[in-house]
TrEMBL record:
<dbReference type="InterPro" id="IPR036388">
    <property type="entry name" value="WH-like_DNA-bd_sf"/>
</dbReference>
<dbReference type="GO" id="GO:0006950">
    <property type="term" value="P:response to stress"/>
</dbReference>
<keyword id="KW-0238">DNA-binding</keyword>
<feature type="domain" description="HTH marR-type">
    <location>
        <begin position="17"/>
        <end position="148"/>
    </location>
</feature>
<dbReference type="Pfam" id="PF12802">
    <property type="entry name" value="MarR_2"/>
</dbReference>
<dbReference type="InterPro" id="IPR036390">
    <property type="entry name" value="WH_DNA-bd_sf"/>
</dbReference>
<dbReference type="GO" id="GO:0003700">
    <property type="term" value="F:DNA-binding transcription factor activity"/>
</dbReference>
<protein>
    <submittedName>
        <fullName>DNA-binding MarR family transcriptional regulator</fullName>
    </submittedName>
</protein>
<dbReference type="GO" id="GO:0003677">
    <property type="term" value="F:DNA binding"/>
</dbReference>
<dbReference type="InterPro" id="IPR039422">
    <property type="entry name" value="MarR/SlyA-like"/>
</dbReference>
<dbReference type="InterPro" id="IPR000835">
    <property type="entry name" value="HTH_MarR-typ"/>
</dbReference>
Length: 148
């Protein structure tokens, strides 16, 4: 037996019940599972849907702004793009203004799939909103944005 003082179990319960990081992680995983389940028939994960939606712009964006909106580093974004690129949903092209840079473009097939996926996302989101009817969703979103 060690002479190191133990943190009391009550402290463990306190952290379990009050830790914002733990609660945010648990909620994020539960939400991700819900959206993954809903989007699975279309062959998408919630992360892939978010990435396709982030590319839905009038002009193909460079990688940096897309990585920022998705809270990813460029390496993670590059890895996330690979399966979408293999499926022909996204094209990664050289930036004509700076050949070192890359622009990300939704292909016609990517736009078609996003058009089919959006109503699924919307219906799933509406179900979650109804389940959280007692929660001030504007305040919840504002709080999450303030942290992000």
């Amino acid at each position: 037996m060690s002479d190191e003082p133990l943190i009391p179990y009550e402290t463990t319960l306190f952290v379990r019940d009050t830790c914002l990081c733990l609660h945010a992680q648990r909620a994020a995983r539960a939400l991700a599972r819900r959206f993954d389940d809903a989007l699975r028939p279309l062959g998408l994960t919630n992360g892939q849907f978010s990435l396709l939606m982030a590319l839905n712009r009038p002009e193909p964006p460079p990688m940096g702004p897309v990585a920022t909106v998705l809270a990813m580093d460029r390496t993670t974004l590059t890895a996330a793009l690979k399966p979408l690129e293999r499926r022909g949903l996204v094209a990664v092209e050289a930036d004509p203004r700076d050949r070192r840079g890359r622009l990300l473009r939704l292909t016609v097939e990517g736009r078609r799939l996003l058009t089919r996926a959006f109503p699924v996302w919307k219906e799933t989101h509406e179900k979650i909103d109804r389940q959280l009817a007692a929660v001030d969703m504007a305040a919840l979103r504002a709080g999450m944005l303030a942290i992000a």
